[in-house]
């Protein structure tokens, strides 16, 4: 293999950072510039890259976080933004970078995991990752009361609203004790800026931010961001609406007093465990902390 220069954690190097952003845009359609400029790239997001000159040609990114599993905290590393410039593919660069990540974090995590697309499902088992089945949770909804007052749609282009979202993201409780995440506010802010910017609402009386979409009689709830315990019935009564018949949660709901059902879901999750740790079954990783 041709000798390329290895570099990591270069967010303060303007040339390399911009090259990284360009490769991410060309490969996945991701837009990191605004996320970086707003100050949401923290020390917990670390790209491992090969560089030629000032050009990033291959990358594997590390996200350092914690998983909450059945109320217990676990050290975790989530891999993301695995990409190689088309002119440099089939040279083993991604495999080389994966090995560097594994070497760097050996015995420093309980779980290492990632979400793979269908084109690379055979790649990650070579490094000790195993495919894990998830479940998607939903419930039938019959509104017993409906009070739509006190809901304000947030605008990420407004500085005050963005500060409010970031404050909640930084102080939030994990969305679930069965399977939640912590130290993932950087990932959440990316979703708020680039994925769900039109779907973020502040419930003033409950002091909760909810991220959701409604279409016809169905509602998808992507996140409920709270800093204190919440009563889910009060939240649903406000956001669901009179015509909502079914609600899907894109995380593992562990709220009291609701009847949920689940279906198997294949989202490309691969997990590498350290020691005797076991990844929980019958859960869904929160969508707003998928890197």
Structural features, described:
It comes from Paenibacillus faecis. Residues 8-152 form the N-acetyltransferase domain. This is GNAT family N-acetyltransferase. GO terms for molecular function: acyltransferase activity, transferring groups other than amino-acyl groups. There is one protein chain. The protein is globular, with a radius of gyration of 20 Å. Helix content is 22%, strand content 33%. A hairpin with a 2-residue loop joins strand 2 and strand 3 (55-69). It contains six helices and 15 strands.
Give a brief outline of the structure.
This protein is α+β, with helices and mostly antiparallel strands. Helices cover 22% and strands 33% of the residues. The strands form two sheets. Strands 1, 2, 3, 4, 5, 6, 9 and 15 form an eight-stranded mixed sheet that branches.
What's the helix-strand series? EHHEEEHEEEEHEHEEEHEEE
Number of helices: 6
Level of helix content? 10-25%
What is the assigned CATH homologous superfamily of the largest domain?
Gcn5-related N-acetyltransferase (GNAT)
What top-tier CATH class of the largest domain fits best?
Answer: Alpha Beta
Distance between the terminal alpha carbons, to the nearest Å? 29 Å
Shape: globular
Structural class: alpha+beta
Going by CATH, the architecture of the largest domain would be 3-Layer(aba) Sandwich
Largest sheet entry: 8 strands, mixed
Count of DSSP strands: 15
CATH fold description of the largest domain:
Aminopeptidase
Task: Please state the average pLDDT score.
Answer: 94
Provide the gyration radius in Å.
Answer: 20 Å
Total individual domains: 2
Q: What percentage of amino acids are in beta strands?
A: 25-35%
Model regions low in confidence, pLDDT < 50 over at least 5 residues: none
């Amino acid at each position: 293999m041709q000798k390329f220069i290895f570099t990591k954690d270069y967010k303060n190097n303007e040339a390399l950072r911009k090259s990284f952003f360009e490769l991410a845009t060309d490969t996945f359609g991701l837009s990191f510039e605004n996320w970086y400029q707003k100050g949401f790239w923290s020390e917990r997001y670390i790209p491992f890259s090969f560089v030629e000159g000032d050009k990033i040609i291959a990358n594997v990114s590390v996200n350092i976080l914690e998983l909450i599993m059945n109320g217990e905290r676990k050290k975790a590393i989530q891999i993301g933004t695995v990409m190689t410039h088309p002119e440099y593919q089939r040279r083993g660069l991604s495999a080389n970078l994966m090995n560097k990540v594994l070497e760097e974090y050996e015995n420093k995590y309980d779980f290492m995991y990632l979400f793979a697309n269908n084109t690379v499902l055979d790649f990650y088992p070579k490094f000790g990752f195993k495919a894990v089945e998830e479940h998607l949770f939903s419930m039938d909804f019959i509104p017993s009361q409906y009070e739509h007052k006190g809901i304000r749609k947030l605008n990420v282009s407004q500085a005050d609203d963005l500060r409010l979202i970031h404050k909640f993201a930084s102080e939030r409780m994990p969305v679930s004790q069965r399977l939640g995440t912590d130290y993932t506010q950087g990932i959440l802010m990316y979703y708020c800026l680039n994925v769900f910017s039109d779907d973020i609402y502040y419930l003033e009386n409950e002091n909760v931010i909810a991220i959701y979409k409604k279409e016809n009689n169905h509602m998808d709830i992507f996140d409920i961001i709270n800093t204190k315990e919440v009563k889910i019935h009060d939240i649903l009564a406000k956001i669901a609406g009179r015509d909502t018949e079914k609600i899907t949660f894109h995380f593992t709901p562990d709220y009291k007093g609701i009847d949920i059902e689940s279906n198997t879901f294949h989202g490309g999750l691969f997990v590498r465990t350290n020691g005797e740790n076991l990844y929980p079954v019958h859960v869904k990783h929160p969508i707003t902390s998928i890197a």
